[in-house]
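Here is the promised in-class demo. Please do not try to memorize the tokens; focus on the logic of going from shape to residues.
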């Protein structure tokens, strides 16, 4: 980095500071590098993880309404340095917010052909309150006026359950509820890093073949199941770097072996596990390598969707047990919503169903520029 670029970088602070200032509300009036006035209607919600820094922003750029994502860099050159220009994940970015402009360009190009406006964050006056004031979404205003978010979140949570059930219904119809449950359990145990790869193991090593091999093996059933899966996993690409020890692929396959041995004991048919009671969840899924939170994830993403798709029990009973399931803990991406919807000592996501409703709300409204149009804002 040359001396002039280093000086601009130092004056701008850090990228995290620029992002935090955007979330709090930049002092105005704001003007884009192309000369247009910018009004921030909704700054978006923090993206979390990979992808743009803020999602679902709503901006007025000189009369043009922009809905999409906001990416933040300390220097304008960070866009290309990080390879965003060719990354489809950044194709919905509508504003490139930078601490300092070291390129002198009024727009940032993306390979899709879009030219993204650039905003240089103005210097912050430490003695002045932020202007405009920090954004308060309509859902937070409605909650502050006494509207309880719980009923709407439960409805959204049940909708998400039906969406998951619709997704696994073809597998249930073609291969039975046992194979569908087995596949979704593996997919859930794979976690965000290896979800698709673990799902492929269920196709490479179908439940019927696995149970037949286990019944013919005199070794520990759990050990044999994990060894069988690890043998197939040796031929696929698994992500190992950057994962917590308990989330490493080997540990998760060992946990899968323990879970399979519990749900399908010796002599079991490759069908829905016998004597598997929905009211016993999540305790019945907890085993070595599968703690309470992961057991709840398995129930939400595998057990209840398959039970609904296969009509294992009456729909009303399935929904009742689903609504009673405790929360595994709030996901990072929902922390802003939790803050906006919380009331005194009441948390908006006390159960798994409401948490799933929050995820659907976040995906369909908060991150799609639909703030103010969701069921909690009506």
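The designed amino acids, position by position:
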């Amino acid at each position: 980095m040359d001396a002039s670029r280093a000086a601009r970088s130092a004056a701008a602070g850090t990228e995290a500071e620029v992002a935090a200032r955007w979330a709090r509300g930049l002092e105005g009036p704001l003007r884009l590098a192309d000369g247009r006035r910018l009004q921030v209607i909704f700054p978006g919600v923090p993206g979390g993880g990979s992808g743009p820094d803020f999602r679902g922003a709503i901006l007025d750029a000189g009369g043009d309404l922009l809905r999409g994502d906001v990416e933040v860099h300390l220097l304008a050159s960070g866009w290309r340095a990080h390879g965003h220009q060719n990354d489809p994940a950044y194709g919905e970015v509508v504003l490139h917010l930078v601490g300092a402009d070291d390129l002198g360009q009024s727009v940032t190009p993306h390979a899709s052909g879009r030219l993204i406006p650039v905003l240089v964050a103005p210097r912050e006056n430490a003695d002045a309150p932020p202007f405009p004031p920090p954004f308060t979404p309509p859902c937070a205003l409605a909650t502050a006026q006494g509207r309880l978010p719980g009923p709407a979140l439960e409805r959204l949570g049940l909708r998400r359950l039906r969406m998951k059930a619709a997704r696994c219904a073809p597998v249930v119809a073609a291969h039975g509820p046992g194979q569908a449950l087995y596949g979704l359990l593996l997919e859930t145990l794979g976690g965000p890093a290896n979800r698709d790869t673990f799902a492929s193991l269920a196709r490479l090593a179908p439940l019927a073949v696995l149970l037949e091999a286990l019944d013919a093996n005199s070794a520990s059933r759990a050990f044999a199941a994990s060894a069988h899966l690890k043998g197939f996993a040796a031929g696929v690409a698994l992500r190992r770097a950057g994962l917590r020890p308990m989330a490493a692929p080997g540990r998760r396959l060992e946990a899968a072996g323990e879970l399979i041995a519990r749900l399908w004991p010796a002599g079991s048919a490759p069908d829905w596990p016998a004597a598997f009671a929905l009211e016993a969840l999540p305790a019945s899924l907890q085993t070595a390598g599968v703690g309470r939170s992961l057991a709840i994830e398995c129930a939400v993403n595998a057990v209840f969707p398959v039970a609904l798709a296969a009509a294992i029990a009456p729909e009303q009973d399935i929904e009742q047990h689903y609504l009673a399931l405790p929360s595994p803990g709030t996901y990072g991406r929902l922390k802003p919503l939790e803050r906006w919807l919380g009331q005194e000592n009441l948390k908006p996501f006390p159960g798994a169903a409401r948490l799933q409703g929050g995820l659907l709300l976040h995906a369909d409204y908060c991150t799609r520029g639909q703030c103010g149009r969701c069921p909690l804002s009506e």
